[in-house]
Input
Amino acid sequence: MNRKHFGTDGLRGIANHTLTPELAFKVGFAAGIYVRQQRLDPKVILGRDTRRSGPMLGAALASGFCSAGIEVMSLGIVPTGCVSFVTRTGAYGMGSVISASHNPAPDNGIKLIGHDGRKLPDEAEEIIEALMANLPDERPVGAGVGDLVTSREEVARYMDYLETLVPESLEGIRVTVDGAHGAAYELGPEIFRRLGANVDVIGCKPDGMNINSEGGATKPHAIQGFTKAEKPHLGVSFDGDADRVVFSDEQGRLINGDRTLGLWCAHWRKCGGLEPPLVVGTLMTNGGFEKYMAEQGIRLERTAVGDKYVSAKLIELDAKVGGEQSGHIIFSRRGPTGDGLITALEVLRVIKREGRSASEFYGDFENWPQLLVNVSLPSRDGWNQNEEIVAALKHAETAIEGHGRVMVRASGTQPMVRVMVEADCSALRDKVADSIVGAMERALAGKVYSRVDLTYSLGE
Output
C-alpha cells in the first residue's frame, strides 16, 4: 500500500499547514474505529511535548477519538516513554503522542502506540489510513460519545516506577540535565533529584517555540560545553520528546548511543546480568564498538536503521538491550521502546556501581573513522539501477574489503541517498566515499547536501 500520511515514525509535518487540525481529527476518528474493530479497551492515552501547536493538535486528535466513542485521558506534557509505560501497564487500547521529536518548533507529529506500548506496526497504520479515506457519516451520540479527561495520576505511577530502577540511589552524584526545552524539562530533573542526585539544569524553560533550538540530543555541543566548564559527573541531554538521550563526560566528550551501549553491556556482562551475551545495533553501529564487544565476549547483531527494527530483533533473540548511535536505546526488560529517562538512569546506575568517572568509560574503546554523506538527487527512483553507480559500488566494496564497510541507501523521507563509509583509517574511508559520491554527481546530477564525520558525533 502506498501510504499517504504515515511515515517511518507516525505522521510529521508543519503544524497548521501540512499537519492540520482537520487531519488530526481524521487520524483520531479512524484510530478510534480501529480500536473498536480490534476489540481493544475503548480508552486511549494522550501526551504531548512543549510545542505551541501541541494543544491545538491534541484537542483535534482527542475530538476524533471521542467522536468514535473512545475515552481519552490526557496526561499533558510528558515524554514518549511515559505514554508507552502507561498504555502498556493500564487498561488502554492505544496511546498517542503529539510531538515531532527532534524537529524544530514549527513542525509537529502524531505517533500512535499500541496497547502493548510499542509503536503501531505498519499493517495497523495502513488499516487506519484506509479508514481515514472512508470515514463513516454515522457517529455515536449521547452517552456513546467518548469522554475527555485530564489527569496526572498515571504520570505519578510512571515516576514511581522509574524510582525503583536505581536501588543504589544517586547520592553523591552531580548531574546536569539539558531538557531541550522539551517533554523531559520537568520530569527529567525531578527523577534524578528524587534519587538523591545534585542536579543542574539547562534547556528547561520551554516557551512553545524554543524546543530543540539551543541544545538537546541533536545539538550536544550545549551539554558538552557545560560539562567541560562545570565538571559534573555526567551531562544528560534529551531530545524533544525524550525517547532518546546522549551524554557528555566531565571533559566535554560526547557519549553517543554506541558508547552508552558499550559501558552498559561491559558492566553487566562482567556482573552476570547480560544473558544471552549479545547486543542489538544497526547498520550504522560503529566497527570499533563491535570489536570492543567481541573482546568482552558479546556478539553484535545488526538490523536496518530504525528503533522499531531494533525492538523487533530484541524480541526475536530474547536480548536485553539494543539501540542506535543517535541515543535511541531499548532495554527490553524495562519496555519495548526507547525511553531517554530509563536510559539515563541505567547509565547513572552503572557509573555508581563501578565507582568510575564517565571519562574513564570513554577510553574503553576507540571508534573507527566513519563518514556519512547525504547526496540530494532530482529523483530517488532507480538510483541503484544506474550502470555507473552499480560499478562504483562494486569497486568500493572491493577496495574496502577486510578493512571496513560501505552502506548506501535511499532516504525514506527525502529525495536523497545516504552514503556511509567506515574504515580502519580515515584516508581509505574518504577515498572510498569520494568515489561513490563522485559517481552520483556525474551519473545522477547529485549534489552533496551534507557531509558528517560520525567518528565522534551522532548517527541518524
The chain has three domains: 11-157, 164-362, 370-453. The mean pLDDT is 95. The CA atoms of residues 217 and 239 lie 5 Å apart. The first helix runs from residue 21 to 37.
